[in-house]
Design goal:
The complex is a heterodimer. By secondary structure, chain A is an all-alpha fold. Chain A contains 20 helices and no strands. Classes of the chains: A mainly alpha, B mainly alpha.
C-alpha cells in the first residue's frame, strides 16, 4: 500500500513538472495560430521564409514554463532570452537592412528620380495611423510604434517598437509581417477604387542606363543627405546604404554576397523565431493587440491611397504622366507591392510592364519609412 | 484568460476599452509631430531627388567632359546618318520597286508615330509609280 501511495505522489509530482497544468486557453489558441502559420507557409507558400520561423516560434513561446525553470523569452538569462536580446535591443533589424541593401538595385530609381516622391507620399500612412492610435488612447510612444506598421517594413517596425514600445513588440511585428504577406489582398481594391481605366493604361518610358560610377556615388551621397536630415535613421539607413555600397563597388563582392545570403538568412531565422516566441498568450492576447491589428490594416490602406493620390497630384503638373498605380508601390513591402502594381497594370494591358518602374517608389519607400522611424524615435524616445 | 486580459489592460493604464478622444492630437507629440515627420521625410527624399537628377551632370564633371547633359539628349533625335538613309532607301526599293526615291527623312515624335505614320504610308502607296 505504501508503495502505491508513493507512486501516486510521484505521479502527481511528475504531472506538476509537465506544462499541461499551466496551459491556458490563450496558450492553446496561440499554438493553434502558430500551427496555422506553419500550415499556410508549407501548404500555401505564404511568405514561407518568415512564417515558418515565426509560426514555430509561436508554438515554442506558448509552452508554459514549469515553475522555477528559466526557459522562455521573457525569463532573464535563459537561452531564448539571450537570443531575444537581438530583437528587444534592436540589433537584428539593421543587420537585415544590410542584407536588403546588398540585394537592392537602385538603378531604376536613379533613372527616374521623380518616382522617389511616391515613396515619400506613402509614408502618410505612418503618420495618420500614429494620429489614429493617439485618439484611441495609446501613449505617443506606442502610437509611433504602431504607426510605423504602415511603413510596411518588418525590420523597421521591430526596430522602432523595440525602442519605443517593447511591450507591444510581438503584436506589432506579427501585424507588420501578416499585412506584408497580405499586400496582394489589401492593395488591389484600393488601387481600382482610386484610378480610372485610362490611368491604369498609362505606359512609362524605358529607364535610361545608369553607369557604375553613379551607382557607387548614390549610396554614399544619399546616406549623407538622409543621415544629416534625420540622424535617428542612421542605424537603419546606414546599414541599407552600406550594404548597397558593398554590392555596387564590386570590389567587395564576397562581403556583399555574404550579407545578402548567409547573413540575412541567419538573422531572419533568429528574428522570426524570437518574434514568434515572444507572443506568449499573456503578452499577446490583449485588447491592445486587436487595436494594433485594426490600426495596422488601416495604415496599409492609407499608405496605398496616399501614394496613388500623390501620383495623381503629380500628374497635374507633369507633361509625361506617371501611371498612378505606381503610387501603391510606395508602400515599401519589397518587392510585393511592386509586384501587385505590375499585376494590376497587366490586367488592363498585358503588354504594359510596370514592374521595373514600380521598384523605384518601392525602394524609395524603404528609405522613406526608415526616415519616418528615425523622426519618430528621435522625437518620442525618453530623454 | 480573463484575469490575464485584465492584468494586461491594467499594465498599460488608460487604454482600457479604447476610449476615443481627439484631445491628444493637440499635444506637442500629436499633430505637430506628424506634420513635422511628413515634412522631414519629404525634405530628405526631395533632396535625394534633386541630387539624383543632377547626378548625370555631376558625372560629366567628374569625368571631365565639357558639355554634360547635351550629348545625352541629342543622341536619340539626331539627324539621320548617311548609313540610316541608305538602309531606308534600300527598304523603300525593296517594298516599292526601283524608281522610288527617298526625298526627305525626319525623326517622328512619339505622337506622330502611329497615326501620322499610317497616314503617310497610305498617302505614299496611293500613287505608287509603275
Amino acid at each position: 500500500m505504501g508503495a502505491l501511495e508513493y507512486l501516486g505522489t510521484k505521479a502527481s509530482q511528475l504531472i506538476q513538472t509537465t506544462a499541461f497544468t499551466g496551459l491556458t486557453f490563450g496558450n492553446a489558441a496561440m499554438i493553434a495560430i502558430g500551427l496555422l502559420f506553419v500550415y499556410l507557409a508549407i501548404a500555401k507558400h505564404y511568405e514561407p521564409l518568415l512564417l515558418v520561423p515565426i509560426g514555430f516560434g509561436v508554438i515554442v513561446g506558448n509552452i508554459p514554463p514549469a515553475a522555477g525553470m528559466s526557459v522562455g523569452v521573457y525569463d532573464k538569462y535563459s537561452v531564448l532570452w539571450y537570443l531575444y536580446q537581438g530583437v528587444s535591443q534592436g540589433v537584428f533589424p539593421p543587420l537585415i537592412f544590410l542584407g536588403i541593401g546588398a540585394m537592392t538595385d537602385f538603378s531604376t530609381m536613379l533613372s527616374n528620380p521623380k518616382l522617389v516622391l511616391l515613396g515619400a507620399a506613402a509614408q502618410v500612412g505612418v503618420f495618420l495611423t500614429f494620429l489614429g492610435a493617439l485618439t484611441l488612447g495609446f501613449t505617443p510612444q506606442q502610437a509611433g510604434a504602431i504607426g510605423i506598421i504602415g511603413g510596411a517594413d518588418g525590420p523597421t517596425a521591430i526596430f522602432l517598437s523595440s525602442k519605443l514600445a517593447p511591450t507591444l513588440l510581438g503584436a506589432i511585428a506579427i501585424a507588420a509581417y501578416s499585412y506584408m504577406a497580405l499586400v496582394p489582398v489589401i492593395q488591389p481594391p484600393i488601387m481600382y477604387l482610386l484610378t480610372s481605366k485610362k490611368e491604369r493604361l498609362i505606359r512609362m518610358k524605358t529607364p535610361r542606363q545608369v553607369s557604375r560610377r553613379e551607382r557607387i556615388i548614390f549610396p554614399i551621397a544619399a546616406f549623407l543627405i538622409c543621415g544629416l536630415l534625420a540622424p535617428g535613421a542612421i542605424v537603419l539607413i546606414g546599414m541599407l546604404f552600406f550594404g548597397n555600397l558593398l554590392k555596387e563597388c564590386t570590389v567587395a563582392e564576397r562581403l556583399a554576397n555574404t550579407a545578402r545570403t548567409a547573413m540575412i538568412d541567419v538573422v531572419t531565422i533568429l528574428l522570426g523565431f524570437c518574434v514568434g516566441a515572444s507572443t506568449s498568450a499573456d503578452h499577446f492576447l490583449t485588447p491592445q493587440s486587436i487595436g494594433i491589428f485594426a490600426l495596422g490594416a488601416a495604415s496599409f490602406a492609407v499608405a496605398t491611397a496616399g501614394g496613388i493620390l500623390f501620383a495623381k497630384f503629380m500628374n497635374l503638373f507633369l507633361r509625361e504622366k506617371i501611371n498612378p498605380l505606381l503610387g501603391a508601390a510606395g508602400v515599401s513591402a519589397v518587392p510585393d507591392s511592386a509586384r501587385v502594381v505590375h499585376m494590376v497594370g497587366q490586367k488592363e494591358d498585358p503588354t504594359n510592364f510596370l514592374l521595373m518602374h514600380a521598384m523605384a517608389p518601392n525602394v524609395a519607400g524603404v528609405i522613406g519609412s526608415a526616415i519616418a522611424a528615425g523622426v519618430l524615435w528621435s522625437q518620442l524616445a525618453d530623454k | 484568460m480573463i484575469h490575464l486580459l485584465a492584468a494586461a489592460a491594467a499594465e498599460t493604464a488608460e487604454t482600457e476599452g479604447f476610449s476615443f478622444s481627439l484631445e491628444p492630437l493637440w499635444h506637442d507629440q500629436g499633430l505637430p509631430l506628424a506634420i513635422m515627420g511628413m515634412v522631414v521625410v519629404f525634405c530628405a527624399l526631395i533632396t535625394v531627388v534633386i541630387f539624383i537628377s543632377n547626378l548625370p551632370r555631376l558625372m560629366a564633371l567628374i569625368e571631365g567632359k565639357p558639355a554634360p547633359a547635351k550629348p545625352a539628349k541629342p543622341a536619340a533625335p539626331a539627324e539621320d546618318p548617311d548609313e540610316m538613309i541608305a538602309v531606308i532607301a534600300a527598304a523603300v526599293e525593296a517594298a516599292l520597286g526601283p524608281g522610288a526615291r527617298v526625298i526627305h527623312t525626319q525623326q517622328l515624335t512619339p505622337r506622330e508615330l502611329s497615326w501620322a505614320q499610317q497616314g503617310r504610308f497610305e498617302h505614299q502607296t496611293s500613287h505608287k509609280p509603275r
